[in-house]
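Prompt: Have a read of the protein record below and flag anything odd:
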Amino acid sequence: MNFEHIEFERRGKVALVTLNRPDNLNAWTPTMSRELSEAMHECNDNDDIRAVVLTGAGRAFCAGADMSGGEEGFSGSQTLKREPLWPYQTNTPVIAAINGAAVGVGITYPMLADIRLAADTAKIGFAMVRRGILPELASHMTVAQVAGFSNAADLLLTGRIITAQKAEQMGLLSECVAPEKLLERAFEIADDIAENTAPVSVALSKKLLWQANAAQFPALMETELKTIDWLIRSPDVKEGVQAFLEKRPAQWSMSPTRDIPDAF
C-alpha cells in the first residue's frame, strides 16, 4: 500500500502503522487522517493481520494539527473513498506506541486504540482549549472512561501538558517504558495476541469492551465537529493559532455569556 503521510508494513501477523511526517513532528493533516482510515480498513479486512502497532516516525508521535496554514488545520473536512474506520471499530486489537510528544489529535486519536504504551520521555496534552478550539474524536467520553471524570476535567479544561508517567498514573496509559524498548514492548504484546489467542474471541471481547460507550461515539464526534467548525470561524481560534505561531500569550475576545451558540 502506497501512502503519503503514513507508512504501512507487515511484520508477520502484526501490522505496523507509522505516522510519517517526522520533519513536521508528524503534524496531523486531512491526508494523514484519510490514510489512517484506509490502513484500519486494510487491517480489519485481512484475517492474516491479528494485531496493529501504531507509532510515529522521528522524535514525536504527533504534535497535533498542522497549523502552518492557520486555523484551517483544525478542520475535519476531507474526502474519503469509504466510511472512516477508527481504531476502536476494528476487529483487530490496536496498540498505540507513543514514542514522543502526543498533543491535541496526537493523543485523542490513540485514545481510540485498545492499549496505549508510551516512552517515559513522552509529553502528552489535550491542548485544544489553549488554541481556542476543543478536543475531538469523542475524547470527552474516552478520557473520562479510562481516567475518571476529575482527571478528564483536569486534562481537557486546562489543556496542560503532562509527562508520560503522570498519564500512566491517571490510567491513560498501560505502561511507560524506555524509548529504546517501546516498539519491542508493543510487538511483544501484539505477537502474544497474534500467536496465543483466538481471533473471533478477541474480536468479540473487543466489541464488548467498547460497546458501553461506542454506540454514542458517532453522535458525539458529529457534535464535536460541528462545534469545531463553528469555532474555526471565530476570532478566538484565529487569535489562539496566531499566538501559538508567534509564541506569545493569547488575547481572547469572546464571551461565554454572549458568544456560545444557542444549541448549547
Notes: Residues 30-45 form the longest helix (16 residues).
